[in-house]
Amino acid sequence: MQEALFDAPAPSAAGDAARGDAGPPADGVPLAERLRPHSIDEVVGQRALLGPGRPLRAMLEGGRLHSMILWGPPGVGKTTLARLLAGACDADFIALSAVLAGVRDIRDAVERAEAARARGRRTVVLVDEVHRFNKAQQDAFLPHVESGLLTFVGATTENPSFEVNAALLSRATVHVLEPLADEDLAALIDRAQAALGAPPLTEAARRRLVAHADGDARRLLNAYENLLALAGGRAELDEPALEAALGAMLRRYDKGGGAFYDAISALHKAVRGSDPDAALYWLARMLDGGTDPRYVARRVLRMASEDIGLADPRALQIALAAAETYERLGSPEGELALAEAVVFLAVVPKSNAVYEAWNAARDFVAADGSRPVPMHLRNAPTKLMKSLGHGAGYRYAHDEDGGYAAGESYWPDSLAPRRWYEPRPRGLEQRIAERLAELRTRDVQAGSRGGGEDGPRRR
Hints:
This protein is mainly alpha-helical and 459 residues long.
């Protein structure tokens, strides 16, 4: 995989000629590869890693080396940084692609590293798309990383926490690379234009090309190269010419990887944070990226029960109605119902009281024993069960004053009542809290057993 990462100053003509950057591509080598940086001073972006005193710059300047995972989206410099690290440390460089390589390729790399060690040289092994290696393939590196035979650099677009074995992850430092900023991408256009002697872009075409790249240097340079191939002898490259070269704009989005889960997380948090406009933005991003609207509908149902709950029970009803509406209408008409549900969930009062109470109850039951159901609460459909005392002494709440059997216990005899559900002072739950307080007062007046470890029981 080719990566490109550049800084703002355009290289000199002499430098271009020495590196073969100017002129038409040789043997079909892409522009992104021909303009690949050869030193840290040519690198742009990733300032958190390459700025003065930052981790990778200090490593490059000091000639030090450690195993690492470079995690970031495509076209932000993972391969470039691995090559620069190897060069700065005067180490042999071996590149493997996890898409194509197998255990035999790993064994060959180890043999080459052993031969390099015999010559007094270090070896850097880059594994591109390391998340594609299975557990056995990743484990094959462990003893050689541990012994220092080779320095392992894994490049991945996926979250290493999920895709890289814990044993290998513990032996490597994870460095996160970010998408390139617009000003960095603009600098790449200047560099490519100077290197090729190409006609200038109009400002509108320039902005459109930067937006199309979406933080990906390789994508930018590939699109620019395609534009030049189609532009003929134009004196200026305008937006219509660029649109013809670009085709449909595709934003960076993976329907099953990190970007996907980050987007749904952002949508959920925008709803929880009561920001309807941000929620609509993330909803649009997900649908625009190709997410199945039915998945979004399921997540909206989860938001309604987790973050709104009984503060406004209508939230769950509206979420269910939105899911059903989408099933009937499909896209794009049904997406409006999802947008309506997302906005409603964002603006209503929030409560996670039921969510927390349910989790607490499940945790308690999972750790507790199987306590018998008290006799007065047991089912008694037969004469035998009645003769054994099932249901004896049970008080039918509808026959009691106010429809409430004050002082009655619904807990196992051996278990002190717990209090898990704590209504929030928002929306309908404020009235629920008042009702529960009234019922507890009646329990106390009736002399119910209460208190226990966690206060009076609740209904």
